[in-house]
Amino acid sequence: MARYFNVSAACKPELHYMVDFTDRLKQIRSMVDAWQYFTINRARQYGKTMTLRALGRFLKEDYLVISLDFQKEMSAAKFCNEHARQCLRSHF
Prior knowledge:
By secondary structure, the chain is mainly alpha-helical.
């Protein structure tokens, strides 16, 4: 099956035409290695999710990659509160 341009869902390299993210992933990797913060902030359909998924695959050899979804406000608050509790327990 020939590849095509996908504009409606997550892109798959074997099915869809894709931009080469290698240089961008290397740049983000250097920030991760240096413990630096970074943001991925663009409008809809600019490849934010695709970039994060590609980054997860790019880092999985050397890092434990965990994907979290904070689309529901309560789940984000619950996660943050529990994480803060565990940090306080282990620190004091």
